[in-house]
Amino acid sequence: MTFWRKALGAAAGAALAALGVAAQAQEPLKIGFVYVGPTGDFGWTHEHDLARQAVEKHFGDKVETTFVENVAEGPDAERVIRQMAQSGQKLIFTTSFGFMNPTLKVAKQFPDVKFEHATGFKRDVNVSTYSARFYEGRHVIGLIAGKMTKSNVIGYIASFPIPEVVRGINSAYLAAKSVNPNVQFRVVWVNTWFDPGKEADAAKALIEQGADVIMQHTDSAAPITIAEEKGVLAFGQASDMTKFGPKAHLTAIMDNWAPYYIARTQAVLDGTWESKDTWDGIAPGMVAFAPYNPALPKEVVALAEYARLGISLGKIHPFTGPINKQDGTPWLAAGETAPDGDLLGMNFYVEGIEGVLPK
Amino acid sequence: MDLSALDPVKLALSLIIAATPLLFAALGELITEKSGVLNLGVEGMMIVGAIGGFATGLNTGSLALGVAAAAAAGMALAALFALMTQYLMSNQVATGLALTLFGLGVAALAGQDYAGKTLDVGGKLDIPGLTDLPVIGPLLFGHDALVYLSLLMAVAVWRFLTRSRAGLVLRAVGENHDAAHAIGYPVRLVRVGAILFGGAMAGIGGAYLALVQTPLWVEGMTAGRGWIALAIVVFAAWRPWRALLGAYLFGGVTIVQLNLQALGVAIQSQYLSMAPYLVTIIVLAIISADRARARLDAPACLGRPFHAAS
Q1: Surface of A (104-133) touching B: CB under 8 A
Q2: Angle at the Cα of B276 (from A233 to B5), degrees rounded to 5?
Q3: Does residue A7 carry a pLDDT above 60?
Q4: Number of other residues whose CB lies within 10 A of the CB of residue B61
Q5: How far is A157 from chain B (nearest CA, A)?
Q6: Least C-beta-crowded within 10 Å: which of A176, A325, A335, B72?
Q7: What is the mean pLDDT of residues A57-61?
Q8: Looking at the predicted structure, is the pLDDT value of residue B157 above 80?
Q9: Is the pLDDT of residue A274 over 90?
Q10: Helix axes A222-230, A196-208, angle to 10 degrees
Q11: Mutation choice for B interface testing from A189, A199, A216, A239 by most B CBs within 10 A
Q12: Considering only residues 131 to 170 of chain A, which have any Cβ-Cβ distance to chain B shorter than 8 Å?
């Protein structure tokens, strides 16, 4: 009987071991997301959360995602990120610029956890960074704005004078100017990312000063509701904002993080993840567009689509010389395209934009 | 750049819209503080008013019902504050701060189904013949009902405080609650009433933001207006007319600076953005500069807890 007992024991042991292996294989990859705003902001955080849901849908029970919303930039962020790493998340996305230093600090203490930080510039062996070339989208909506304005005045609601925002203004202006030489840009700095009341007031001020197309680099849909009320045109920010102004809303530049999040999750599953910097645009689909307003004339849609395709094929660069800076000093020679370094540190208006860029 | 492009009538219309939420909230807080209670929860009461008003306005299509719901929502939160500070004797400053955080959270939760919706209930007054008059037409007869209500409330608050017996009792309670108690005035009851009034007014202010100014609901949309209203009350030296002036100054300078930027004026925008805060504080500080008078204006028992036994 001893033989049988031993055999049984061995078999059971093997079976258990096999079960263990199977269990290990099926152990889902835990992925954490840290958001700066509420998932219901209909802007920045909303899009990150849609991408998280896309990851869940794509991988099914191979992954398990969790998120924490409304995390303040600063010490609180570090606590949340560390908590996530401690509770077994193996891949953590931190989705705001201000999470940069906390992410790096926690990453040092958890070398076997992979971190992905949005819009930052500091990396480590287990910290990647990623951002989107929104200025490519601004080029496309700049063309539409240049074609659609009747007063030749385009209003731009800007948040803070950081390169990201300045790049967007320059890109949109150059595009609008290329199809409408008489176009003027009026920029209002509201010094906030999010204040619906102030954004609404800024939109009204721009409309009163003659703007009939409104662009925004702030996060709420208030400018769209005002544009609809006053009968002018506008573009959504980060998400499709059509429902806030069905007549006013021409299209929106949308952040689409899903392809990137899926690719990075796959890399972790395959064991091929390594630290890198990603700055993607229209081509891989990181920058996308809301459906065009049906009222847009066919030739304007064609122009926009031509530019979108041209950019995604690498045939068109929104910053192609000759371009001078606002004070008239040359920046790019004819045919030259802007190097990424210039774009990342952009702190000047291009020639033709009026007003003073806050320093 | 051409300054004549600034149309004073249009500027005035915009400034009134920007100032009205502040005016409502400031008048409410003024009454609360005149009774001796410091409620730092204005921001929280404004935002529950915003979602309460927006949700009701959206479901009923009625501005009046939306405003009533906003007032009720603000009052509900204020009642919590009254319970905590007047009956459970909690610290007013801490409770007020907690009320702001709580209000922001509750509003976010209640507003989940309303994010991304918009509505149109802010009917403007339109009297044929009168509203069409140049300049004074739109200025006097071209607003929505809430603007008239806010001005009416400024007059009412002023009359209440200076011309009515009840206002005198409220001020007595705020100046010296022990004396008021000794004469037989119901200190606690007066304060609860003042707190509730403050909540209702803050709620209406929030509703104005969500129903008329933007008009939409989104989490955190008051964006600090409650704190500005609080500051206006102090710099206005607890006087209704100065609160009106402060709210209109703040709204006015905000609108003018946005318009100047839109005109392309060559001034660094940081200075323009600072302007509303600076101008409001400087003007109100100057007109309230008489220190002896200012001491008289500040309710002596502001923020002090009242124990009937002592």
Answers
A1: none
A2: 50
A3: no
A4: 12
A5: 9
A6: A335
A7: 94
A8: yes
A9: yes
A10: 30
A11: A189
A12: 155, 161
Asked if residues A97 and A120 have their Cβ atoms less than 8 Å apart, the reply is: yes
Closest residue of chain B to A156, computed from CA coordinates: B262
**A41 interfacial to chain B (CB closer than 8 Å):** yes
CA atoms of A293 and A255, how far apart (whole Å): 19
Q: Is residue B304 part of a domain?
A: no
CB A235 within 8 A of CB A260: no
Contact between B220 and A194 using a beta-carbon 8 Å cutoff: yes
Query: Would B169 be classed as within a structural domain?
Result: yes
Instruction: Quote the radius of gyration of chain B (alpha carbons, Å).
Output: 20
The pLDDT tens digits for A167-179 are: 999 999 999 999 9
Q: Tell whether B252 is covered by a domain.
A: yes
Question: Sorting pLDDT into bands at 50, 70 and 90, what band is B126?
Answer: low
The answer, for A317 touching chain B at a CB cutoff of 8 Å, is no
pLDDT at residue B310 tops 60: no
Residue A75, preceding bond cis, omega within 30 degrees?
no
Domain range for residue B100?
Answer: 3-115+125-131+140-297
Strand partners, B118: B216
B186-203 residues labelled b (16+ CB within 10 A) or e (exposed): ebbebbbbbbbbbbbbbb
Other residues' Cβ atoms within 10 Å of the Cβ of residue B88: 9
What is the C-alpha to C-alpha distance for residues B161 and B158, in angstroms, rounded to an integer?
A: 5
Pairing of strands A184-189, A233-238: unpaired
Q: CB distance B221–A208 less than 8 Å?
A: no
* Residue of chain A with shortest Cα separation from B122: A229
Q: Give A299 to chain B, closest Cα distance, Å.
A: 30
CB nearest B261 (choices: A189, A192, A244) = A189
Cross-chain residue pair B218–A196, CB shorter than 8 Å: yes
Residue B29, pLDDT above cutoff 90: yes
Pick from B21, B219, B261: CB nearest A188: B261
Mean of all residue pLDDT scores within chain A: 89
A359 touches chain B (CB under 8 A): yes
User: Do the Cβ atoms of B269 and A356 come within 8 Å?
Assistant: yes
Query: What is the C-alpha to C-alpha distance for residues A253 and A251, in angstroms, rounded to an integer?
Result: 7
Let me know if residue B307 belongs to a domain: no
> Would you state the torsion angle of the CA atoms of residues B154, B156, B159, B164, taken in this order, to the nearest 10 degrees?
-150
Of the candidates A355, A314, A349, A357, the one whose C-alpha atom is nearest the C-alpha of residue A172 is A349
> Which residues of chain A have a CB within 8 Å of the CB of B117?
243
Q: Is the pLDDT of residue A23 over 50?
A: no
Q: What ipTM goes with this model? A: 0.83
Query: Which comes out higher in pLDDT, residue B133 or B181?
Result: B181
Q: Please tell me which residue of chain B has the smallest CA distance to A193.
A: B223
Per residue in A240-262, pLDDT (tens digit) is 889 899 999 999 999 899 999 99
Tell which of B117, B218, B265 to mutate to test the A interface (max A CBs under 10 Å).
Answer: B218
Instruction: Say which range, A134-148, A290-304, A340-354, has the weakest mean pLDDT.
Output: A340-354
Contact A188 B258 (CB under 8 A): yes
Number of structural domains chain B divides into: 1
B259 CB neighbours in chain A (<8 A) are 205, 208-209
B8–A contact, CB cutoff 8 A? no
Cα–Cα dist B152/B138, whole Å: 18
pLDDT score recorded for residue B127: 66
Residue B283: give its domain's CATH number. Answer: 1.10.3470
A-proximal residues of B, 27-46, CB under 8 Å: none
